[in-house]
Amino acid sequence: MVRKRDSIKNKVKEVFSPSPTQEPVEHAVDDSLEDDLFAQLDAKEAEQTSNTPSKTPSQTHSMREVEAEAEAEQKKSRKARREEKRLLEEESIRQAAFAEANLPENEKLAKEATEEEKIIIDICNKHARKMHEISPDGHCLYAAIADQVTCDSLLEYSPQFQATYQDMRSTAANYLREHADDFMPFLTTANLTPADGADSDGHEAEGTPMDIAQFNKYCEIVENTGEWGGHIELLAISRAINKPIHVVQRSHHNVILIGGREGEFEHNPEGVDGIWLSFHTRMYGLGEHYNSLRRKEDTTS
């Protein structure tokens, strides 16, 4: 600032001071005029300096607080939007469930049948399978397995020497008899009627553990009647023919693997061979039903 003022002062002197070759100016500027001029310059510079905003430590701290509050508000806003979206999604699910629950029963069953068919067809396409329909009667589980055994020429069967549902019933019953200790703990008298040897003291609903006589009666039912088969029979047949059985269905786990090594299907579904069945609860009016899922290239009639 001092240098700038000295420079200006010198220029003023040059203007108002006579050169050596000039005559003295009649009304020369005296020192008091110079002092007034520089006083005015100093005052103007001081005013400009005072008008320039400067940030004190407290002001800087306040600005940081404002920025932090703005960031917190932004985060809060994002959280509020996420929460709102979640609530809307939950409400949408509730409304859909309510609407479905209040559909007329026939419409609801038709909708579930369509969903079931789509799920099974999609899985068939993924694994190069096609559905072969089995007669919907009490033998459908065994007949579907017999069709798979025939098409894949397993055991001694082939398209020229076809397996029947009775063959598979006998296979299941014989394996159960030979491995009674493995299966008896999972069967109770609830699987029998009083006429077949179930207890008659009020425990029919939940049943009591079977004794060996009751278990043998159960095996006779599996082999010689039209009683529907279930998980026990699927497991017995899987072990008897040494092939895993895949059951494709509509429920949460769309493919259940029975037999085979644990986790084999989950880790390598494309590399697992075996029996493929579809399990239906809606597509057929009689209720639960099994179909055979043949290989797409299969030409068995």
Structure description:
- InterPro entries: OTU_dom, Papain-like_cys_pep_sf, Peptidase_C85-like.
- Residues 1-14, 62-89 have a biased composition (Basic and acidic residues).
- One of its GO terms (molecular function) is cysteine-type deubiquitinase activity.
- Residues 1-89 are annotated as: Disordered.
- This is OTU domain-containing protein 6B.
- This protein has 301 residues and is an alpha+beta fold.
- The protein has a domain at 109-295: Cathepsin B, Chain A, CATH 3.90.70.
- 53% of the residues lie in helices and 8% in strands.
- The chain has helices at 2-16, 31-51, 57-101, 105-126, 140-151, 165-178, 180-183, 212-224, 231-241, 264-267, and strands at residues 129-132, 245-248, 255-258, 275-280, 289-295.
- A 5-stranded mixed beta sheet has the order 1-5-4-2-3, sandwiched between helices.
- A hairpin with an 8-residue loop joins strand 4 (275-280) and strand 5 (289-295).
- The longest helix has 45 residues, at 57-101.
- It is elongated.
- Residues 18-29 have low confidence and may be disordered.
Q: What is the CATH class name of one domain?
A: Alpha Beta
CATH topology of one domain: Cathepsin B, Chain A
- Mean pLDDT score: 78
Separation, N- and C-terminal Cα atoms: 108 Å
Q: What is the second-level CATH architecture of one domain?
A: Alpha-Beta Complex
Order of strands, main sheet, comes to 1-5-4-2-3
Number of strands: 5
Shape, per Cα inertia axes? elongated
Helix coverage percent of residues? 40-55%
The description of the largest β-sheet is: 5 strands, mixed
Give the number of helices.
10
